[in-house]
């Protein structure tokens, strides 16, 4: 366990040497990362396939495309992001230099998750490097092939002392969390999020917690159901439902429930063919434990479609549940699987109330032809982010901050927001040592006229 | 849980949506403005009773600065509340993409005793502006200020949405058991840890404005008289009880000898030959703090001041020379009118000294040579920095105010307070039509579709910029 302390001390010494601070160095490291992704594409895709049964073009578009885009954008914009920002001055500081300087925080810890094991380590890493920090990377042990790959590859391309990879499970992570970091970005569930924040509190370390929850999806009567359902099906069943921003459950009026089911069924056919199990584009549940957990949620439910499962391959068919009770198990925890419950509500008011009674979700979705209705749902609820008339997509616009609120997390990243998350904004005021006469009005002794 | 009722009452008000409209927020903010105007005398009296705060200082730091924040907020609220539209990528050109500023809900503001009004009101202004409900917990140590806030704020603000809770450690601990949607804490690092640990149980985000020892480096090339005045002003304001006060001086032996007479002269200019009689010099807030600071005087040698009067909790403006890093005055944040001078050989040694210690809330460097000021700035880390003056960087509402590492996390003042108390919600409002554009993303996955997606999503690197 001393190992953790050594790794972190080495990273801190490397940071203190100052070499990660120059823009040239940072861009050089980012370029190396870019080369790594391009040169090792096959290995990365193989690891993702081994961990999640994720097919080539699918894995590429979800895990590699985004990373390359983030790298390109970051390298291009870094000089402008890192430049000191002059600020508006007041009367007393008219002749002074006043600006905000962006500085690295120091040693950052990035803890990844298993569901998008490559991108959820890479995107934070890119931002942390861009901001000039040393970064300790801890990929999730659950996606073991990707974790091992990251541990093998990063040292081949990046500065080994500044950006070490630590592998292991709960004991190793617990030990790691006793060390002092200058920022921790954790992606995972709320229960562990609390543990991470409590550990961070001991060192007064700021945290970004990308957690989860049940992301609601409200379908209005007035909408193009075929389109809506196709988009929902895509977002729900990608990665076998193991997506933090998947539409977790549907809220709609009873009158359209049947049509919703029909449309989703038709779309599933279009996407995965007759025999889902043999589609190369349909993933598997990551392990037996989660397989059991998700399967257990089906107990006592009305299965309108799907329900088939095969433990040996951790296969669960795309499943739809209808007339689900808000009190049932499937409506208690984040599903994180290919099971889509439909809860009926009488109106949009009831939907809004339903959503507000529960913990704030990471994402919120609303489908309607009525722009006003969409605006209303957004205004009367709270969530990490929102996509109207689609799902997932707000994740792919890096100018939008990506993060949760309440139980779904705190802080945000992506694009420039990553750079800012991993930087310290230091206020700087540089005055003239002369011009003392202007200061005299503030010194004692005081006469009324000074005020 | 004695506060459960209060918290759920505020939460119900929050859920009713009444704090969301701009008009409501403006009304509450204007009421705060009236509080500052109508209760000005009472505020000055309360801080005088609590720590002998001179009325000039109280007016400047507790009323004027708050009014500035209020006016900046009222002038800009409409603009701050607006959805911030963001640049879109190719695929989303026909969509609406914006950042919505959502209130968090029910927030908790915990304030310390040294600027008992400012450190309640400036966060509160931002919390109200951002549309939240708030519980305010002023410090029990500044008891007259606490009483004034508890008794009068409720006459100005909507009691369904804003409440003041009084009490000590016990009450604060019980209060922190409740779930809040944001906690804003100003105080010591050790209590900061307790607050963040309590917040972690509910996954409540926090801003912690803490403290530490703010170093002040004085180079050999400087206008000594001006340095002495600016440093003395910053150190002795509020009898040294300021989180951003210059805590200790670093300079060469030669400079120490030149500074001492200059500091003596500045102190006399400010407070007369007997500062105890000056109406412009404050007192220590309580007996415990008085005794703590008095014990620190056994450091180096007393070059200026050193007199104390326990009955009045008076400690004279004091400068300690030849202080060693091992002396008592260098072991903790002084928070009193005592300025230790630690002798260093040169700027490099000063920088190493600073970097060997926890990162401070503020850092000061004085030199006529701007290269020296910039060197100190670039080779250190701190919450904020002021070259050739003290304290002034926090009077600018356009500069974020906050710490780093042990001196804190988060920042506020001006728009930064509004942003602190808002959840920045990424929103993408898409077109229901044009479904064909989405086709490449759907299974069955093919290389051809991937090619289309890549073309649509990728960011092509422009020619490398060699000028960095």
* Main sheet specs of chain B: 7 strands, mixed
CATH homologous superfamily caption of the largest domain in chain B? Aldehyde Dehydrogenase, Chain A, domain 1
Domain module tally of chain B: 2
**Global structural class of chain A:** alpha/beta
Distance between the termini of chain B: 57 Å
- As a percent range, the share of helical residues of chain A equals 40-55%
Spatial strand sequence of the major β-sheet of chain B: 10-13-14-9-8-15-16
Per DSSP E runs of 2 or more residues, the count of β-strands of chain B stands at 18
Low-confidence residue ranges of chain B: none
- The rounded Rg of chain A comes to 25 Å
CATH architecture identity of the largest domain in chain A? 3-Layer(aba) Sandwich
Q: What would you report as the Rg of chain B, rounded to the nearest angstrom?
A: 26 Å
Give the count of helical stretches of chain A.
Answer: 14
Count of discrete domains of chain A = 2
3D shape of chain B: globular
Family (chain B): Belongs to the aldehyde dehydrogenase family.
Keywords (chain B): NAD, Oxidoreductase
InterPro entries (chain B): Ald_DH/histidinol_DH (IPR016161), Ald_DH_C (IPR016163), Ald_DH_CS_CYS (IPR016160), Ald_DH_CS_GLU (IPR029510), Ald_DH_N (IPR016162), Aldehyde_DH_dom (IPR015590), Aldehyde_DH_NAD(P) (IPR012394)
Organism (chain B): Grallaria varia
Description:
The complex is a heterodimer of chains A (451) and B (468). Chain A has 451 residues and is an alpha/beta fold. Chain A contains 14 helices and 17 strands. The longest helix of chain A is centred in the N-terminal third of the chain and has 27 residues, at 56-82. Chain A is globular and about 80 Å long. By secondary structure, chain B is of the alpha/beta class. Chain B contains 15 helices and 18 strands. The longest helix of chain B is centred in the N-terminal third of the chain and has 27 residues, at 55-81. Chain B is globular, with a radius of gyration of 26 Å. At the A-B interface, helix 2, helix 4, strand 2, helix 8 and helix 9 of A face helix 4, strand 2, helix 8, helix 9 and helix 10 of B. Strand 15 of chain A pairs parallel with strand 18 (422-429) of chain B. Chain A: Homodimer. Chain A: This is Aldehyde dehydrogenase family 3 member A2. Chain A: GO terms for molecular function: 3-chloroallyl aldehyde dehydrogenase activity; farnesal dehydrogenase (NAD+) activity. Chain A: Keywords: Coiled coil, Endoplasmic reticulum, Fatty acid metabolism, Lipid metabolism, Membrane, Microsome, NAD, Oxidoreductase, Phosphoprotein, Transmembrane, Transmembrane helix.
């Amino acid at each position: 366990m001393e190992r953790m302390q050594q790794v972190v001390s080495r990273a801190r010494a490397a940071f203190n040497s100052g070499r990660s601070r120059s823009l040239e160095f940072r861009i050089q490291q980012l370029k190396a990362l870019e080369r790594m992704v391009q040169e090792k594409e096959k290995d990365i895709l193989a690891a993702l396939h081994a961990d999640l049964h994720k097919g080539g073009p699918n894995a590429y578009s979800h895990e590699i495309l985004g990373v390359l885009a983030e790298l390109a954008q970051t390298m291009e914009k870094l000089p402008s992001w890192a430049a000191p920002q002059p600020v508006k001055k007041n009367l007393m500081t008219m002749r002074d230099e006043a600006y905000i300087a962006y500085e690295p925080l120091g040693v950052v810890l990035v803890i990844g998750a298993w569901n998008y094991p490559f991108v959820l380590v890479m995107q934070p890493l890119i931002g942390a490097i861009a901001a000039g920090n040393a970064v300790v990377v801890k990929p999730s042990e659950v996606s073991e092939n990707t974790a091992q790959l990251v541990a093998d590859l990063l040292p081949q391309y990046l500065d080994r002392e500044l950006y070490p990879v630590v592998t292991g499970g709960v004991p190793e992570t617990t030990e790691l969390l006793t060390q002092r970091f200058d920022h921790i970005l954790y992606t995972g569930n709320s229960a562990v999020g609390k543990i991470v924040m409590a550990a961070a509190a001991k060192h007064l370390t700021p945290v970004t917690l990308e957690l989860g929850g049940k992301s609601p999806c409200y379908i209005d009567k007035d909408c193009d159901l075929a389109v809506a359902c196709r988009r929902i099906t895509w977002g729900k069943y990608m990665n076998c439902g193991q997506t933090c921003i998947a539409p977790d459950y549907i809220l709609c009026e009873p009158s359209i429930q049947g049509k919703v089911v029909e449309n989703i069924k038709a779309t599933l056919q279009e996407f995965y063919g007759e025999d889902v199990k043999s589609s190369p584009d349909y993933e598997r549940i990551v392990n037996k434990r989660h397989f059991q957990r998700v399967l257990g949620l089906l107990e006592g439910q009305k299965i309108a479609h799907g329900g088939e499962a095969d433990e040996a391959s951790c296969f669960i068919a795309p499943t739809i549940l209808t007339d689900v009770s808000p009190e049932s198990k499937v409506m208690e925890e984040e599903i994180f699987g290919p099971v889509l419950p439909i809860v009926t509500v009488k109106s949009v008011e009831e939907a809004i109330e339903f959503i507000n009674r529960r913990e704030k979700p990471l994402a919120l979705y609303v489908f309607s032809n009525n722009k006003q209705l969409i605006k209303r749902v957004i205004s009367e609820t709270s969530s990490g982010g929102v996509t109207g008339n689609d799902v997932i997509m707000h994740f792919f616009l890096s100018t939008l901050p990506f993060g949760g609120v309440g139980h779904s997390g705190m802080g945000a990243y992506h694009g420039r927001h990553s750079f800012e998350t991993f930087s310290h904004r230091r206020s700087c005021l540089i005055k003239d040592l002369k011009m003392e006469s202007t200061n005299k009005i503030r010194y004692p002794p005081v006469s009324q006229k000074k005020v | 849980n004695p506060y459960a009722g209060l918290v759920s009452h505020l939460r119900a008000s929050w859920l009713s949506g009444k704090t969301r409209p701009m008009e409501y927020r403006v009304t509450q903010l204007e009421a705060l403005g009236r509080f500052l105007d109508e209760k000005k005398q009472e505020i000055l009296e309360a801080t005088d009773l609590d720590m002998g705060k001179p009325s000039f200082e109280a007016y400047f730091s507790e009323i004027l600065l708050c009014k500035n924040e209020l006016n900046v907020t009222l002038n800009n609220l409409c603009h701050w509340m607006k959805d911030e539209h963001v640049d879109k990528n190719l695929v989303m050109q026909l969509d609406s993409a914006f950042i919505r500023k959502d209130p968090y809900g029910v927030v908790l503001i915990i304030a310390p005793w040294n600027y008992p009004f400012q450190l309640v009101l400036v966060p509160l202004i931002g919390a109200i502006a951002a549309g939240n409900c708030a519980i305010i917990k002023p410090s029990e140590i500044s008891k007259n200020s606490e009483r004034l806030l508890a008794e009068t704020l409720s006459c100005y603000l909507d009691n369904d949405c804003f409440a003041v809770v009084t009490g000590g450690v016990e009450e604060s601990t019980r209060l922190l058991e409740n779930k809040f949607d944001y906690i804003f804490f100003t105080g010591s690092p050790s209590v900061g840890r307790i607050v963040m640990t309590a917040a972690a149980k509910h996954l409540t985000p926090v801003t912690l404005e803490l403290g530490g020892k703010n170093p002040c480096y004085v180079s050999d090339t400087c206008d000594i008289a001006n340095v002495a005045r600016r440093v003395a002003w910053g150190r002795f304001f509020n009898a040294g009880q300021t989180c951003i006060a210059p805590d200790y001086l670093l300079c060469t032996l030669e400079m120490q000898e030149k500074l001492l007479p200059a500091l003596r002269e500045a102190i006399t200019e400010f407070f007369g030959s007997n500062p105890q009689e000056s109406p412009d010099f404050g007192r220590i807030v309580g007996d415990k703090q008085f005794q703590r600071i008095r014990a620190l005087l056994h450091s180096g040698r007393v070059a200026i001041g050193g007199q104390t009067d326990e009955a009045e909790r008076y400690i004279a403006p004091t400068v300690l020379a030849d202080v060693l890093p091992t002396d008592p005055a260098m072991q903790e944040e002084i928070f009193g009118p005592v300025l230790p001078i630690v002798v260093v050989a040169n700027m490099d040694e000063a920088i190493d000294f600073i970097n060997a210690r926890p990162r401070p809330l503020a850092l000061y460097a004085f030199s006529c040579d701007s290269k020296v000021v910039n060197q100190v700035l670039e080779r250190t880390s701190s919450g904020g920095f002021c070259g050739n003056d003290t304290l002034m960087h926090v009077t600018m509402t356009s500069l974020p105010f906050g710490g780093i590492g042990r001196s804190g996390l988060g920042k506020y003042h001006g728009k930064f307070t509004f942003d602190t108390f808002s959840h920045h919600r990424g929103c993408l409002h898409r077109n229901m039509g044009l479904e064909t554009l989405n086709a490449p993303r759907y299974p069955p996955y093919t290389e051809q579709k991937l090619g289309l997606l890549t073309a649509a999503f990728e960011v092509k690197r422009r020619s490398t910029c060699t000028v960095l």
